[in-house]
Specification:
About 30% of the residues lie in helices and about 20% in strands. The protein has about 300 residues and is an alpha/beta fold. It has a single domain, classed as TIM Barrel. It has a 7-stranded parallel beta sheet with strand order 3-15-14-9-8-7-6. The chain has a 4-stranded antiparallel beta sheet with strand order 4-5-13-10. The chain has a two-stranded antiparallel ribbon with strand order 1-2. α7 crosses α9. It is globular. The ligand O=C(O)c1[nH]c(=O)[nH]c(=O)c1I binds near residues 69, 102, 128 and 219.
C-alpha cells in the first residue's frame, strides 16, 4: 500500500506531521522533524514578539495522554519566518514547512499574515484560532462573530494557502454555525482539533494539580480526546465545501487511530502527545502500522477509503 498524499496541490510521501506546538519550538527540533519520516512538519505558533510562556511545570504526561498550559512560548515570528525562508532556499525540491501563527489580537494576526503575504514564503499557513492557555484570552474560535470578522479581514489581502486550527466543538448547533461561517471563505483547510481546553488532572499522592499555570487547568490531549477529534473531523468533513480539506489531529497514537481519522475524512494527520512522548521515531512506527492495516484490508491507496465512514 502507498501512503502518498496530495494536499493543496502538493505531493507528500505520507500524511503524517507534527501538531504545532510539539517538537517545533527551536530550529534543532524543526530540523529533527525535517530529517524524520514525517511527511510534513509545522512550526510552533508564533507571536510578533518572543514569549517565555507560562511558569513550569506546564506540561504533564499521563497514562492516557497529556495536559498542557504552555502559554504560547515561542521564539517570535521573525525566527520562524527566517527558518522557513532559509529552508525553501536549501531544499528547493522539498515541500516547505507549514507556518503557524497565533497573534494575541486581531490586529496582531493581521500584521503577521500581511508579513507572510508580502514575503517569499511559498508554503501553507495555519492560523491558530484555539490556544486555550493564555490567561485572560478566550479561544477565538468560540466567538463566532469575531472569527467571521477576522477571516473577512484576512481574506481581503491574504492570497496564499491558509488553514485554521480549531478547538473542539461539542454541539451540532456549533458545528452548523462554524461550518456556515467557514464556507464563506476560500480556506485551504480546517485542522480539527486543538487540545480539549481547560481540563484538570489530579495527583492522588500529593492531592494536588500537576501543572502550575491556571491552578492546574490545561488543554487535554492523547487517548482522552480521540472520540471528540473524530467527531469534529467528521462533523466538518460532512458540512464544509469539498474544496476545504481537513487535517485530523487528536488521539493519534497508532496506525489504527490514523486509519480512523482518514476514514472520517482527514487528509493530513497531526501527532502531538504521542510525538512528545516517543520522539520523531513515532512517524516510522505510525506509517508502518497504517500500511499494515491497509494491506490487511486490501487498500492500495488512502483515496480508496478516505471519508468513507459508513452509518448504520
Ligand atoms: O499553551 C500553548 O502554547 C498551546 N497549547 C495547546 O494545547 N494548544 C495551543 O494552540 C497552544 I498556542
Amino acid at each position: 500500500a502507498s501512503l502518498r498524499t496530495e494536499f493543496l496541490g502538493r505531493q507528500y510521501e505520507n500524511p503524517f506531521m507534527n501538531a504545532s506546538g510539539v517538537h517545533c519550538l527551536t530550529i534543532d527540533e524543526l530540523e529533527e522533524l525535517s530529517n524524520s519520516k514525517a511527511g510534513a512538519f509545522i512550526t510552533k505558533s508564533s507571536t510578533e514578539v518572543e514569549r517565555e510562556g507560562n511558569p513550569e511545570p506546564r506540561y504533564y504526561s499521563t497514562p492516557l495522554g497529556s495536559i498542557n498550559s504552555m502559554g504560547l512560548p515561542n521564539r517570535g515570528f521573525k525566527y520562524y519566518l527566517d527558518y522557513v525562508l532559509d529552508y525553501q532556499d536549501k531544499h528547493p525540491a522539498a515541500n516547505t514547512p507549514f507556518f503557524s501563527v497565533a497573534g494575541m489580537s486581531i490586529d496582531e494576526n493581521l500584521k503577521l499574515l500581511r508579513a507572510i503575504q508580502d514575503s517569499a514564503f511559498d508554503g501553507v499557513t495555519e492560523l491558530n484560532l484555539s490556544c486555550p492557555n493564555v490567561p485572560g484570552k478566550p479561544q477565538l474560535a468560540y466567538d463566532f462573530e469575531v472569527t467571521e470578522e477576522l477571516l473577512s479581514k484576512v481574506f481581503s489581502f491574504f492570497k496564499k494557502p491558509l488553514g485554521v486550527k480549531l478547538p473542539p466543538y461539542f454541539d451540532f448547533a456549533h458545528f452548523d454555525t462554524a461550518a456556515s461561517i467557514l464556507n464563506k471563505f476560500p480556506l485551504a483547510y480546517v485542522n480539527c482539533i486543538n487540545s480539549v481546553g481547560n481540563g484538570l488532572y489530579v495527583d492522588l499522592e500529593t492531592e494536588s494539580v500537576v501543572i502550575k499555570p491556571k491552578n492546574g487547568f490545561g488543554g487535554i490531549g492523547g487517548e482522552y480526546v480521540k472520540p471528540t477529534a473524530l467527531a469534529n473531523v467528521r462533523g466538518f468533513y460532512t458540512r464544509l465545501n469539498s474544496s476545504i480539506k481537513i487535517i485530523g489531529t487528536g488521539g493519534i497514537r497508532t496506525g489504527q487511530d490514523a486509519f480512523e481519522h482518514l476514514l472520517c475524512g482527514a487528509t493530513m494527520l497531526q501527532v502531538g502527545t504521542e510525538l512528545y512522548e516517543e520522539g520523531v521515531s513515532v512517524f516510522e512506527r505510525l506509517l508502518h502500522e497504517l500500511e499494515d492495516i491497509m494491506n490487511k484490508k486490501g487498500y492500495t491507496s488512502i483515496d480508496e477509503f478516505r471519508g468513507k465512514l459508513s452509518s448504520l
